[in-house]
Design a protein that fits this description.
four-stranded mixed β-sheet, alpha/beta, 6 helices, about 210 residues, seven-stranded mixed β-sheet, about 25% helix, Rossmann fold
Length: about 210
């Protein structure tokens, strides 16, 4: 049976390429801000481009924090992309402004210490051996466009709960490229702009939901 994915249309730009990629990966896709559809779909995609603060302002208008909490509490999959990953953390610090995030994960998103910013282009990742997202694309490159990132993982999960699968990349310094934490997954790169490797990653996610 075809899986349904609701792409959260909360005012973030450049979401149609994500919708097309999800369709190519085999999902039935709904671009929507309808809360009922967002709650009931097999998977929900949270896109995000631009500044952390402006993304959070738009998400707050849609009461996104409770929506995501409801999905995750029910064990329903959520995938964040780019700033959609960053806002899952407690804080984002841009231009000296500290903005509160959705707080699903502890820690802050800060500017990369790198000779050139933004980080634009194809980079390799070091995927977690436990990863299901990267199955079959462990050695591929993915497309990044960002100046900020999460650089540490502070959530210490004890048995019997499963530790998150962490995937890293590097631009000037090491940063988190992807996280798989129960029903909540996220990528700092853009799978929808990452060619066949990105499509395979989306297929892997769709298969898991």
């Amino acid at each position: 049976m075809t899986k349904t994915v609701a792409v959260f249309d909360y005012g973030s730009g450049n979401i149609h390429s994500a919708c097309r990629a999800l369709e190519h990966a085999g999902a039935e896709v709904f671009l929507t801000s309808d809360r009922k559809v967002l709650l009931e779909a097999d998977g929900m995609l949270l896109p995000g481009v631009g500044a952390f603060a402006s993304v959070m302002r738009n998400l707050t208008k849609h009461n996104a924090a409770s929506l995501i909490d409801q999905r995750l509490t029910a064990g329903r999959a959520v995938l964040g992309i780019c700033v959609g990953m960053q806002v899952m953390f407690e804080h984002g610090v841009e231009h000296g402004i500290d903005t509160e995030g959705l707080g699903q994960w502890p820690g802050s998103v800060t500017m990369l210490e790198a000779p050139t910013l933004p980080h634009i282009g194809w980079s390799k990742v070091s995927s977690d051996p436990k990863s299901s997202l990267f199955e079959g694309v462990e050695d591929e490159r993915f497309y990044f466009v960002h100046s900020y990132a999460a650089k540490n993982w502070e959530l210490d999960i004890q048995p019997p709960f499963v530790k998150a699968a962490l995937t890293w990349s590097e631009h000037g310094e090491r940063f988190l490229a992807a996280i798989e934490n129960g029903p909540l997954s996220a990528t700092q790169f853009h799978p929808e702009k990452s060619g066949e490797a990105g499509l395979q990653l989306l297929r892997n996610w769709i298969r898991s939901i």
